[in-house]
Design brief:
single chain; alpha+beta; elongated
Length: 205
């Protein structure tokens, strides 16, 4: 083998190494960009969830907490000790310990079992629930992966307005009934007076 062939071989091997290095660098750069993009999307999603005025809670298919925004923590009184990975049952127990949920000490596990049974149905449902002096509308929907999304909306103002409207309606109905009874009494008295007048008239004539 002459020197020219050796040189060509060395150059060829060098080119191959350079191309391979460039490919590895390109793949590493693409991976870094992909990870950076994934991180950006995760941050964007987390920011969107935190910006919600409604409470947002996500559970995975194993009924473990994935995320809970600050609004949900404010509604339920839960602190950061209830974090990702916490089983749903333990989330309910923690809520009971806050004192915002009206339940006696011996009934905590009954509360947990009841909530667990409804939670495991994996059905879309909406209920109203009172926590402390606030009213919440709680909507739970299953995810395609077998988890569940729970949304909590503070409806205290609407609830109080409806209660005030119902009270005003009841008072109006009571006033109408009292008026009807009063008019009925007046009518009976008027009838008796008219009857007495007629009798006296007959006696005079």
């Amino acid at each position: 083998m002459n020197s020219a062939s050796i040189n060509v071989g060395i150059v060829g091997a060098t080119v191959i190494l350079i191309v391979q290095a460039q490919r590895r660098a390109a793949l590493a750069l693409a991976g870094a960009r992909s990870e950076a993009e994934n991180q950006r999307l995760r941050t964007l999603l987390a920011d969107a969830v935190e910006s919600l005025k409604d409470g947002f809670v996500l559970y995975d298919a194993d009924d473990r907490l994935v995320t809970m925004n600050q609004a949900a923590r404010s509604f339920t009184g839960l602190d950061a000790s209830v974090g990702p990975g916490t089983p749903h049952a333990d989330v309910i127990r923690a809520m009971a310990r806050t004192g915002l949920v009206t339940v006696s000490e011996g009934d905590v596990e009954s509360l947990v079992r009841g909530r667990q049974e409804r939670h495991r149905l994996k059905q879309s449902r909406t209920i109203e629930r009172r926590i402390g002096d606030r009213w919440h509308q709680v909507s739970e929907s299953p995810t395609r992966e077998g988890g569940a999304v729970v949304l909590r909306t503070d409806i205290t103002a609407l609830k109080r307005a409806n209660l005030a409207l119902a009270e005003a309606k009841a008072l109006a109905e009571e006033a109408t009934r009292a008026k009807s009874e009063f008019l009925a009494v007046i009518d009976r008295k008027s009838t008796r007076l008219n009857s007495s007048h007629i009798t006296i008239s007959y006696a005079v004539f």
